[in-house]
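Why does this matter for the project? Reviewers at the last site visit asked to see concrete outputs rather than summary tables. In response, this paragraph embeds two records directly. Each consists of the residue sequence and, immediately after it, the corresponding structure tokens. Nothing has been edited or filtered.
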Amino acid sequence: MSSKHDESRRAFLVSAVVGAGAAGLVSDARAQAETQHGPAETTGQAHAHAGGHGAFFNDDDAATVAAFTERLLPGAPGQPGAREANVLNYIDLALAGAYADQQDFYRRGLNALDAYCRKTHNAPFVKLDPARQDDIVAALEQNKAAGFTWPTAAAFFNTLRTHTIEGMFADPIYGGNKDFAGWRLVGFPGAHPAFTPADMTSREAFAGGALIGLKAQAKRS
């Protein structure tokens, strides 16, 4: 698929986050999930199990989710994508914690995705070139991918897109947004101890200091 397509998809998701407010969009979702199910693992590192597995995903599912999220938010030179931001780690930890009630949703969705890709292109999603991966993603988004019952293709797409956005822009303490990649992308300054009146009213990206997340603040308290 052309780089213009990647730029368009990335710009759409970034603009959606900027419009909603990067911090508010993801913190509300995390707070709601943790109120219902308790906090997810917050070390920012997935626990490796035997065979290289993560906190929830096996190796095959992890590779599929990593490839799928990268097509949702592809990287470019100087602009990090889902892989660089470690979105996979965020989703993996969330499904082992706050989003544990969605484990079966993911298992069934990933199985249906694999079956659809093999039937359509005789190969799993990770083996397809970017153009065909984008065709698969579009089919899910439009609810046109055959073989999905529960979740529906559109529901699976929408959930993965939501979790990709969260993993890209949530505080790094949740395992994604590696090195503040998402915050840097949208010019979000993080939770600094103090802003000047001019900082509070400015529409420009904050450039007054290093980015600060929840883990750094916790260490100082």
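We now turn to the second protein, recorded in exactly the same manner.
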Amino acid sequence: MIRLESLSKRFGGAVAVDDLDLAVDDGDVCMLVGPSGCGKTTTLKMINRLVEPTSGRIFIGGEDVTGVDPVVLRRRIGYVIQQVGLFPHLSVAANVATVPRLLGWDRQRTHARVDELLELVGLDPAVYRDRYPHQLSGGQRQRVGVARALGVDPPVLLMDEPFGAIDPINRDRLQQEFLRLQSEVRKTVVFVTHDIDEAVRLGDRIAILREGGVLEQYAPPAEILGRPASPFVADFVGSDRGLKRLSVTAIDSAGLGRLPVVAPGATMADARRGMDAADAEWAVVVDGEGTLVGALSRADVNGGGAGDVTGAMTPAPAVVDSGATLKDAFACLLLHDAGWVAVADAGRYCGVFTPESLHAAIRRSVG
């Protein structure tokens, strides 16, 4: 855990961070966001003592580190910055090995750790370990920077706008890679960004600072978007916060709609009767294990003769996993003309989203 108690920083007469209290649980990602000059980077640098606080205390894992040798402290904390800061005259392997080498690891152990970390960030050691930074793309350099920060498996990772200088396509890929990586290594992360969408996507909790380094709200993304604590927060996250909240709101199985269900061996007449009774234009075909195996439209049924449904059914027009978000379901719905999206849990049919049920879910999510 990282805990900041009454942390303040003044530069001359200017207040950069004002009496900040903040706690980040083990394995969580805390996103620091706010306008330029609100103290985000200063807060980050105080945690690893690149900037000394004017007052207050910093605890990491229960230890007050405000009195610890800052050089020793920094070797226990991974640090990733926007411009990466790789040593241009060193190979990728040598860059990643920086902290293990400083700590006196032997050559074999260091070599194995470098290869392990490159694989972890999605870079083949056989291809990349002997390259130099100028031979890498911006996204690849950023991955090497993350690998270097994880060199000796630090419990804490500090990230200062690490994806800010990356083009939108690679930025999205790096965000996906970060989420994958965090699911594996579960570091305690403090991550500075100016992008509220990035904060919502990556953070377990978001800390919103205003000018003068004052904490306005610290809460999970859904709470920030659904219940802004002040007009400043509401303005900062934007008037489209209801739409943003879709990306952090899971599908609620209780709100799913229902279509007529028929078994693979049912006759076309059975399917027709079920659709007529429900006044539905579609039916879903579900086997005895509950697995969604197909769908039938009214046109399939009317033109399918008198046999069973197997020959007439088609794949469901659109399917999302039950663990998906409302944003995923909404996007899927917009891409297809059927007017519904099937929801499945590991292939097992759960129900459907229609425009009506999705609208109701959206209203509940932002209420």
